[in-house]
Amino acid sequence: FLGIVGSEVNMPTYVVGGFVRDLLLDRKNYDIDIVVEGDARVFAKTFSRYFEVTCVEHKEFLTTSMFFRNGLRIDVATARTEYYEEPAVLPNVEVSTIKKDLYRRDFSINAMAIKLNQEEFGLLLDFFGCKNDLEKGIIRTLYPLSFVEDPTRILRAIRFEQRFNFKIENRTLELLKKHVSQNYLERVTGQRLRDELEKIIEEPDPLKAIKRMEELRVFEHLFPDSVVDDEALRMLDRYFRRKKSAKPKPVYILAMILLKNAPERSLDYVIKRYGFPRKFPDWIKRAVNISEKLKRTVQSGEQLTLRTFFYLLKKPEPEVLSFIDATLDDKASKLLHDYLERIERIKPRINGKLLIEKFGLKEGPEIRKILEELQLAKLEGLHTEEEEKFVKELL
Ligand code: CTP
């Protein structure tokens, strides 16, 4: 139907980019990007006469997003060529043809279009040997300044390479390495880099991409003084395997693990650059400190128990917890989660107020100590009926 609307307004209409790539790879993709040779606003307006969509215009990019009631979104762009007044900032755009539009894209695998107008419905536009690259599994930039104009493509190249098990083509790899070493990543806003990092973390196997980033010396430019050694990789592996919720933000945990031994100035740098919370250095400090204590306990031959976690952790911040969990093997991690589940669920019936009223205690540290002992005993299986006896024995 997009093609019918295109023909009605006399615009050659194409679906482009990732959608075409994934169609040819037989992979699902619900991100539909449309390019028209004409005014995207007029297209969207006409489309909205037939379908109930909300249109949001992004004037500077000559793009209109159409939101359907069921959550589907289709972006319609006027075919454009982008030119950059300065490298690494967002481009200025100029109306153009589909061919030039495709040429300015990141990699050949993302630079194909399929025509949607009825007359030529389904026609694949492949000007640059893109389909061949896709079949061979090659990531290739289309023009030499690609990484200069948009250094986030350095991260995108790695992401696509690892996602599809492709290979970055030699010349592209040379350019990539050159631009990494010439500090092009430093020219991009922290937010754009953070977005790309988050996309990498969302991949089914982020560790592969992280290893490749390290091999290509990307991390030293993202997080100065980061260390990606075996221990960090082991922690990341555990974290990604066990991660079940988006809270805490995975990008914080990634950075905590890679920067666990970094000096304060590097932590200040990432806080400013990526908008991390001010507490970030504090999380690392606490997490490292507790992890070391746990490690020493295990090394001294002592078993990790609910009691160990109780005294070391209390109720840790989620960021600190995720880090600590990543330092533990599967068995210890299970015990930790058992502890967390119990501390949430099991509360003593006797509280501070009762200790004062019924047991005649005075407010102060003694009460806190008793409540702590009681809480621990409860975690370890003390029944509610036994609480009173337990407290009397303590007194
Ligand atoms: N694109 C580009 N340069 C970028 C980002 C995007 O040329 N830095 C182009 C590519 O043609 C890409 C399209 O815009 O296919 C859409 O980008 P995006 O939605 O970010 O990526 P997808 O290719 O759809 O990949 P994914 O499957 O990760 O969503």
TrEMBL record:
Superkingdom of this protein's organism: Bacteria
Signal peptide segment: none
Residue ranges of coiled coil: none
Family statement: Belongs to the tRNA nucleotidyltransferase/poly(A) polymerase family.
Name this protein carries in UniProt: CBS domain-containing protein
